[in-house]
Specification:
24% strand; 19 helices; globular; 604 residues; binds 2-deoxy-2-amino glucitol-6-phosphate; alpha/beta
């Protein structure tokens, strides 16, 4: 996701902006840039790729004395990652950086072009600077022009604007995307998308609220609300510990990442949903022409999302889908036919086994696609096409938000392929797109639910094992729930299809065997319920997760009523993640760095 920094003061603004951007690298980006106004003159630099390229370009550039500057790391949404599309965007005497999406940019751009404005980039952001300069011609001050501009743009934004007509001022506005301003007793002002770039530089920070806009000068910080009422900044002391600041007050990165799922999934959906169709610019005809089968290959959690996809692809897109554990696929001399699209799934894009299968598929002449969270990773560079999941950096070794965004991508992709194959009616596609838009709400962690699980977790610290059971897509979810628990609690846990229990595993049933039962109301409820009743009759301790009350359970974790089983899937996913987290915390384990595990498994 894009990152923003800003600086006003007498120190070396180039270094401050570049080091600030460095701290925002974790958000993911494909290009970067800065613009500095000093001694009446603007200097601006942009580079694609990593920050080192921008550092290289600014090597000779020196800042001394008072200056104002803005910087940006861009994660492309409108327009490819090119230098022209990188921020800051320029007008005739102003520069702007922006994180978010200007929804009405197309109409504003049309009007501006009709007025004779020339656009240099394909971005939505560029309209802000031109609209500002248009308003400047008829306004009494730059602030009036900025205020008018903000009232004219719609969508999500955190934006900073600097202009020659106010050489000691940075204008800001925030709506939907994060931004804060920091101060110290040296009359400096710092802006950033998150607080890490400000640590060690500022003493106090004000987190902007949606609708806030205003300006800073050396002596002033003026904020207005979206109702144009002036308000006092609400300063809080800035932590001096980088690591804890990055955790945003959560106990562990994993916990933070569970709570982040709602916003990262909103990013995953961004620009990919119309009312009646799913858009994937990444999947073109050349990739899909002549494909009769999809083979999904991955490890660990990514394998579980692939298994989920296999249900959705066959059910909705009516395309034959097979899945493979990468470490197995490598050595079993598999038959690969050219009408198969070979898809690898990986959070990191570096997992050795998965990467190797991608190489095998390429060598066999198959078309290849990677679903990945890390741009420019080895798999992204190697595959013919790539869909990025946009989960942001995942630090917890136990994957959470990466899984959530992978499943979101697959659900979207099943509808994309369904439309292509005429496998679903347009009405069905429209109604499922509406459901997709509800995922961010479904994965919001409910405080009451979290508290309930925290209390309940004390009963699940011992025993001789856990079975997580579910049917259909709730089977991969059961596998994922079990994997999460074993990774961070070191307790033995297995995922099973509910219907398989009576074929052997039920022999283990006794009060010391914990069964975590996934009982979705909208998918095979009665069948799954009977399987759980069989276990309950044999005295297994049952913890049921459902929106329908289940009286045979010893413990019950309710989820919200939803209208579709995939929304129940996401609700239950969060419950399972929080359940593992709380058990691990009670056991005193290192949640983020569990023993024996690595975040990126680059060896076989
Ligand atoms: C998930 O919690 C694990 N840490 C692990 O199973 C992981 O999903 C697996 O190693 C694959 O990694 P990848 O998605 O980066 O390829």
């Amino acid at each position: 996701m894009c990152g923003i920094v800003g600086y006003l003061g007498k120190k070396n603004s180039k270094e401050i902006l570049l080091s600030g951007l460095k701290e925002l690298e974790y958000r993911g980006y494909d290009s970067a840039g800065i613009a500095v106004l000093q001694n009446d003159k603007f200097d601006s630099f942009k580079a694609i790729g990593k920050l080192i390229n921008l550092e290289e370009k600014t090597k000779e550039f020196v800042t001394q004395g008072f200056s104002i500057g803005i910087g940006h790391t861009r994660w492309a949404t409108h327009g490819k990652p090119t230098e022209l599309n990188a921020h800051p965007h320029v007008g005739s005497e102003s520069y702007v950086v922006h994180n978010g999406i200007i929804e009405n940019y197309a109409e504003l751009k049309k009007e501006l072009i009709a007025d004779g404005v020339t656009f240099l980039s394909q971005t939505d952001t560029e309209v802000i600077v031109h609209q500002f300069e248009k308003n400047l011609k008829t306004s009494t001050s730059a602030f009036e022009a900025f205020k008018k501009t903000i009232s004219e743009i719609q969508g999500a934004y955190a934006t900073l604007l600097v202009t020659k007509s106010e050489k000691e001022t940075i204008f800001f506005a925030k709506n939907g995307s994060p931004m804060l301003v920091g101060i110290n007793d040296e009359n400096e002002k710092y802006f950033a998308s998150s607080d890490t770039p400000l640590i060690g530089k500022c003493t106090d920070v004000n987190y902007f609220e949606d609708g806030d806009y205003g300006y800073v000068t050396p002596d002033e910080l003026t904020i207005f609300t979206n109702e144009d009422v002036k308000k006092e900044p609400l300063f809080t002391k800035l932590s001096t510990n980088k690591l804890s600041a990055q955790k945003d007050g959560y106990r562990f990165f994993m916990e933070k990442e569970i709570y982040e799922q709602s916003s990262v999934i909103a990013d995953t959906l961004l620009g990919r949903l119309c009312d009646d169709e799913v858009l994937f610019d990444e999947l073109d005809d050349a990739l899909l022409e002549g494909i009769n089968e999809i083979k999904l290959c991955a490890c660990g959690t990514s394998y579980h999302s692939a298994l989920t996809a296999s249900y959705l692809f066959e059910r909705y897109a009516k395309i034959k889908t097979t899945i493979e554990v990468a470490s197995e696929f490598r050595y079993r001399q598999p038959i690969m036919t050219k009408d198969t699209l070979f898809v690898v799934i990986s959070q990191s894009g570096e997992t050795a086994d998965t990467l190797e299968t991608l190489k095998m598929a390429k060598a066999a002449g198959l078309k290849t696609l990677v679903i990945c969270n890390v741009d420019n990773s080895s798999m992204v560079r190697l595959a013919d096409a790539c869909v990025l999941t946009r989960a942001g950096v995942e630090k917890g070794v136990a994957s959470t938000k990466a899984f959530a965004t992978q499943v979101t991508v697959f659900w979207m992709m099943s509808l994309y392929l369904a439309k292509r194959n005429n496998a679903l009616s347009s009405q069905d596609i429209v109604s499922q797109i509406k459901l997709l838009r509800e995922i961010p709400k479904s994965v919001k962690v409910d405080d009451e639910m979290h508290e309930r699980i925290k209390r309940l977790s004390k009963r699940y610290l011992h025993g001789h094992g856990f079975f997580f059971i579910g049917r259909d897509v709730f089977y991969p979810l059961a596998l994922e729930g079990a994997l999460k628990l074993k990774e961070i609690s070191y307790l033995h846990a297995e995922g099973y299809p509910s219907g398989e229990m009576k074929h052997g595993p039920i022999a283990l049933a006794d009060p010391e065997l914990f069964t975590i039962a996934l009982l979705p109301q909208h998918l095979l409820y009665e069948k799954a319920k009977s399987n759980v009743e069989e276990l309950s009759a044999r005295d297994s301790t049952i913890c049921a997760i459902s929106s329908v009350n289940f009286d045979k359970a010893d413990d019950f974790i309710p989820i919200k009523k939803c209208s579709h089983y995939m929304l129940e899937f996401f609700e239950m996913m969060v419950v399972l993640q929080v359940f593992s987290l709380e058990i691990s915390i009670r056991l005193g384990n290192d949640v983020d760095m569990p023993r024996n595990l690595a975040k990126s498994v680059t060896v076989e």
